[in-house]
Amino acid sequence: MTTIRQDDFIQSIADALQYISYYHPKDFIDALFAAYQKEQSPAAKDAMAQILINSRLCAEGRRPICQDTGIVTVFLTIGMEVGWDAELGVSEMVNEAVRRAYLQPDNVLRASILSDPAGKRINTKDNTPAVIHMEVVPGDKVEVELAAKGGGSEAKSKFVMLNPSDSIVDWVMKTVPTMGAGWCPPGILGIGIGGTAEKAMLLAKQACMGSIDIQDLIARGPDNALEELRLELYEKVNALGIGAQGLGGLTTVLDIKILDYPTHAANKPVAMIPNCAATRHAHFVLDGSGPALLTPPKLADWPRISQADGNARRVNIDLLTEQDIAAWKPGEALLISGSLLTGRDAAHKRIVDLLTKGEPLPDGVDFNNKFIYYVGPVDPVRDEVVGPAGPTTATRMDSFTEMVLDKTGLLGMIGKAERGPAAVEAIKKHQSVYLIAVGGAAYLVSKAIRKARIVAFPDLGMEAIHEFVVEDMPVTVAVDSRGDSIHNTAPKLWQAKIGKIPVTVE
């Protein structure tokens, strides 16, 4: 009988969570670099460059790839001949590992998990509990698959109960465009087919953890119906022209991964879960010989590329007027410098509540002629001003946008992905502007932040309002003051250029 010691189990999971916070899998780097080399859309190519540069910086500095260090999901396959030298239960050991990993002082990870999700939504402070799935099988080992899944990509998860005669391809092609860019493409689509509703979702999540091998499959050809489906979806999803960060381009997905399971004759459950540009997962086996050892990749595995800042215009946001931003065009690259305030969901809720009551905003929160950055940064370590500080999905702030623009004199917003129709209309009405930073380049963005301090709502933790002083922070104009959105126009343009899917004329 194999004996797994409590300390070995906890240390292995904690070490793996730290490892995946700053090391992309090599297959992801190789696939993204290949996509970068062939990309013809300048905006998408620059976004990929930032993701690749960020990835190398994180590997060198051992700091998180993304400020959203995720919700931990663990799949355990436990051999029936395994014994435990442990005082804690298996789930308790997993959560202790998460606690140690996220509070590791040399690389503090962001605590994003909230208890009482339908009520007070209180941060648990240590990112516990994890989501744990266990299976007991013949054998004398423990196999561990784990991932740290970002909230932006998880929010785009989809499920449908199709009729047996319905087309999976048709559903995927109808659904992917509705997901927008909040899942930070290019990434992986994990698809689960069969079982029951919850089984399909689990299959989709596990599929996301597979290695990227679509180019090998293309080279050798499919051997079965699932591989044929992978190839068809890979070609057709990329033909949509959504591109990196939704900016239009040749590559939206780096791979399509599919798992299936037998299902009821009356059903065809299908789930789809995207994995973002901050793909983070690890696989290891414990055999009783000690903690698992994950071999760090070589820095030579990362390509050396430089960010194409030559076409970017430097802008001092402290001196901007409405007349200045009126000249900006969708897709224009900027390097912004000056001071801005931050705010996410919880902060916006408090701001709007105060405005609704006619009460003043807290001291230090003056949005007049300012920009707000939708971000919840990682805590700094050592000599950092701030930890990784990439953008969060902007559509979650759409319902607040009209009031904030109307009541505060806010000049512009910075986030990731597209804005919904109501927010675009508010931007147009108030002649504001919306800029995007690259999701998946959080450590790179943090290098542009020269000063940081909390100015309001410190009890919200990472959702507190900060003041950042930035220098040459790279952003792209996404919605201009006339309400024109690159996320509406660019994918259609590139879909037409690719020419494999007819473009619907509105």
Can you walk through the features of this model?
The chain is of the alpha/beta class. It folds into three domains: 1-38 and 70-149, no CATH class; 153-277, 2-Layer Sandwich (60s Ribosomal Protein L30, Chain: A); 313-491, Fe-S hydro-lyase, tartrate dehydratase beta-type, catalytic domain (fumarase). Helices cover 32% and strands 24% of the residues. It is built from 15 helices and 19 strands. It has helices at 6-22, 26-38, 42-61, 90-102, 151-154, 168-175, 197-207, 214-220, 225-238, 322-325, 345-357, 398-408, 421-429, 442-446, 486-498; strands at residues 2-5, 71-79, 82-85, 114-115, 122-123, 131-137, 142-149, 158-162, 187-195, 253-263, 268-275, 281-286, 313-316, 333-342, 371-373, 412-415, 433-436, 449-456, 465-479. The strands form five sheets. It has a five-stranded mixed barrel with strand order 14-15-16-17-19. A four-stranded mixed beta sheet has the order 6-2-7-12. Helix 12 (398-408) packs parallel to helix 13. The protein is globular, with a radius of gyration of 23 Å. The N and C termini lie far apart (66 Å).
